[in-house]
Amino acid sequence: MPVRLMPVVAAALIDADGRVLLQRRPPGKQMADLWEFPGGKIEPGEAPEAALVRELHEELAITVDPAALVPLTFASAGLGERHLLLLLYVVRRWQGVPQALEATALAWVEPAAMRALAMPPADVPLVAMLERFLQIGG
């Protein structure tokens, strides 16, 4: 049976102290109350980078130059009839102060501390990749 691919983009926004911004999923949504990287679905005909710039503006009220997006890694996970393909980008430069427009909370978290947070299954393997990237000075 063919699966329906669901491409999604996410950002690891990294502040000057090396902390990463996570947001808490709101009640009523699938995987409510879990901490996740901000981002969202890629619309048909939309480039991944354009989708991430749009999602960060919609979710956090920040402006990101597509040139500031650095592809890091991806995750692949089955979700019933759909299959999630999650593309993670590192972002170190943006305009504005992130605000929780759709999430119930935002938190700046040390990469090692992310392991203790409840996160969606697709986000979990991204944490180790992000930690390694930051340890080598990425």
From TrEMBL:
Q: Where is the Nudix hydrolase domain?
A: 4-131
Q: Where is the signal peptide?
A: none
What family is this? Answer: Belongs to the Nudix hydrolase family.
Alphabetical list of InterPro entries matching this protein? MutT-like, Nudix_hydrolase, NUDIX_hydrolase-like_dom_sf, NUDIX_hydrolase_dom
Q: What is the catalytic activity of this protein?
A: 8-oxo-dGTP + H2O = 8-oxo-dGMP + diphosphate + H(+); 8-oxo-GTP + H2O = 8-oxo-GMP + diphosphate + H(+)
Q: What class of enzyme is it?
A: hydrolase
Report keywords, A-Z.
Answer: DNA damage, DNA repair, DNA replication, Hydrolase, Magnesium, Metal-binding, Mutator protein
State its Enzyme Commission number(s). Answer: 3.6.1.55
PROSITE patterns on file: NUDIX
The record, for SUPFAM superfamilies, names: Nudix
What are the required cofactors?
Mg(2+)
From its record, what is one biological process in GO terms? Answer: DNA replication
Which organism does this record belong to? Sphingomonas taxi
Q: Does the keyword Magnesium apply?
A: yes
Gene Ontology MF term list: 8-oxo-7,8-dihydrodeoxyguanosine triphosphate pyrophosphatase activity; 8-oxo-7,8-dihydroguanosine triphosphate pyrophosphatase activity; 8-oxo-dGDP phosphatase activity; 8-oxo-GDP phosphatase activity; metal ion binding
| Name of this protein | 8-oxo-dGTP diphosphatase
